[in-house]
Amino acid sequence: MTDQPFEIIGADRPGRWLIACDHASNHIPDWVHGGDLGLPASDMGRHIAYDIGAAGVTRHLADLMESPAILSRFSRLVCDPNRGEDDPTIMMRLYDGTIIPGNKYADDAEREERLRRLYRPYHAAYADLADQMGDPAICAVHSFTPRLQGRHPRPWEIGILYAHDDRLARPFIEACRAQGWCTGENQPYAGHLPGDAVDRHALQHGRPNVLIELRQDLIEDAAGQRLWAERLAPILNDVLANSGL
Fold it and tell me: How many angstroms separate the CA atoms of 23 and 7, rounded?
């Protein structure tokens, strides 16, 4: 795995969508705590380290919609690109009941190095790609665990998150429900956080946007990732075309 903090697919593709996967990877760069945050492989394979299946869905969506995509190449446990720089959860010390040893005593200097070498280059590339496209519609792809420790199972197959801009989100929710999918509106999480990736690259620029959360057990293998991308691509294209945006 290269330590380049992002991957861009199809920068010159003609599609209007810019598909982003902030939590695509569970990679720990060698220079971060010796390339090991002190967690066993079993924990690094869990949702705490990355969004399981989201990268595969992103790649298929980009191909199907002939659109560019940007994917992170570092674990959210190193620093979370879907948080603002001043968000205290940008470098988690405890996540879903698991202590992150390599973050427990990380100081401000280490936090700054992670931001400088990973977080800021990722967002600079994201911003450059969006500017290059001119008038993109942002589609952020995430996934959620079917159940947090000690919590009830989550029933939603797909969740659509939005803040004050629901121009694409609301018709997309309606279209998903028309398919018979158990669709959460701002579920399993509520809206957006100030300074998060959609806020930074879509809301602050007035760009149309939709944030998709897929349940991880539905997209944990290649077949599920392709299936959901094939389901979602035509709906996304229709919603954008019909929006007049």
Answer: 12
Reduced to 3 states, what is the DSSP secondary structure of residue 240? helix
Whole-prediction pTM:
0.95
Q: Which tokens is 73 given?
A: 């190449």
In a domain, 161, yes or no: yes
Structural domain tally of the chain? 1
Cβ atoms of residues 138 and 205 within 8 Å: no
What DSSP state is assigned to residue 37? -
Q: Is residue 207 part of a domain?
A: yes
Contact in structure between 6 and 70 (CB atoms under 8 Å): yes
- SS3 of 95, please? strand
**Per-residue pLDDT tens digits for 182-225:** 999 999 988 778 899 999 999 999 999 999 999 999 999 999 99
Evaluate whether residue 85 is within a structural domain. yes
CA nearest to 195, candidates 44, 85, 121: 85
User: 1 in a domain, yes or no?
Assistant: no
What is the domain range of residue 42? 6-243
Q: Are the C-beta atoms of 200 and 211 separated by less than 8 Å?
A: no
Pull the structure tokens for residue 46.
């869990």
For position 2, what pLDDT does the model report? 60
